[in-house]
Amino acid sequence: MGRFFRVIRTLVRDQAVARVTAAFTAFVVAEYAVWIGMLVYAFRHGGTTAAGLVAFAQLAPGMLLAPVMATLADRRSPTELLVGGYLVQALGMAGVAVSMWANASPYAAYVLAVLASTAMTTTRPAQFTLLPALARDAQQLTAANVVAGWAENAGMLIAALVAALFLGIGQIGTLFAVCAGLVAGAAVLAAPVRVAGIALAGGGAGADGEPGGLRMVLDGAREVGRERRPRLLVSLLTAQFVVVGSLDVLFVVLAIQVLGRGQVWVGYLNTAYGVGAVAAGVLTAHLLGRRLGQSLTIAVAAFSAGLVLTAFSHVAGVVAVLVAVVGAGRAVLVVAANTMLQRVVPAQLIGRVFGLVEGLSMAGLAAGSLLTPLLVAAGGARLALIVVGCLLPATALAGLRTLRGLDRGATVPVVEVALLRSLPHFADLPGPALETMAGALQRVELAPGQVLIREGEEGDRFYAIADGEVAVSVAGRPRGVRGRGSGLGEIALLRRVPRTATVTAVGPVTLFALDSATFLAALSGHAPTRRHADQIAAGWVEADAGQ
Q: Is 0.70 surpassed by the pTM of this model?
């Protein structure tokens, strides 16, 4: 349990990360609850065919639009994409509620539900782009992803209970209204968080003549297709969504055909799956400081073995335990794969790559829901369970060499890139150059009262504050306090003069240092960045002269 509380402490020390995570939890509850509610509503109005068509209609737009909309996370801001998505979801859900209360045509509710579900495809790409920009270090990034995984798993269980409550009293419209309130609240929680996009500004035509917007979408797909590690991780995430899409049908097959226990056991198996996923939250806390490639391999094995073994058991209790193992394996797999993907993808492409994952996940869910009935018809329940259970191991084996080396080699310093981007000095620096600079940063820890820069000394490094606060003084007179998102030491480097101020840690402080050669090389190679840095240095000099 020590690691569990360590994750919580790592998360809650940052208000922005806590707000975004709380908003995501509310979103997950609403997402799953309205999915259940709309399928029940469609079934009541048009039977199985209507439910299937409505389910596909809610998934299909996301397959195409998620990669396109995710470009906003890189080009503009992940916060804008996240909050905008929440607001559109709230409007769509509220519209469904009103149409149901007014006894309008079911097609009105279907169209509004598709609007809300399409907007939902913006949430995860924005979430997984935003977290690296907010994290102080790689450990906090992993902690934030772990808690997002907990929110996903716990949200599924809460959503089932919420949906059951309102469906039990026949108030589907009220269910949508409550969920609209949840995602509207999520928008309010996330709105104060300010993070800039880190892709190269400007959207003109590329050298190959492609429009800027299309080029940005294709850049994410090219990165996944070109590099082995992103390709394997995206393939595993897509394959597990095919399995998840199969589970609704598989649980029916298990309960009725394999166990012979009737429809009530469909609910029990879903509950066992959810309990396993929530219980795995304690396990995911151990991912902090661990080799994620190894954890990913174990998760794939557990996820798949649990499903395959159910084909050979007719004992209800054993099957329930195996299904819980499936849920636990999937929970660990998703957290490990998402965290690793954030590390191995260039920082300026994170939003687009996760947009691609979101689109593929919609396709995977649809494919899984179609695959299982075909397998059952072709060879029975046992064949279906074995084939679906082997999808993930087959994907992993296809990239076995990459899987073994997943933790080896340099990873993208995504947290450091986001920190540098938050500084006004580097607001316009292109993504690749920013990434190169981030790779040269050195972590510096200061104790309370420790002097970082002393007035009159020679300057040899630039500093970016990642956590904590420092006090600045000139000739012994206080000149204010600076915190995260502030740069230090640029005047001495740009003007080749001794340090003009003394900087002392107020409390524990974490900084990242950049040597003068790398700092000056980056500025000299990009004129707008040089101008920004000169203006900032001039502003500090003028402020000191005026006091």
A: no
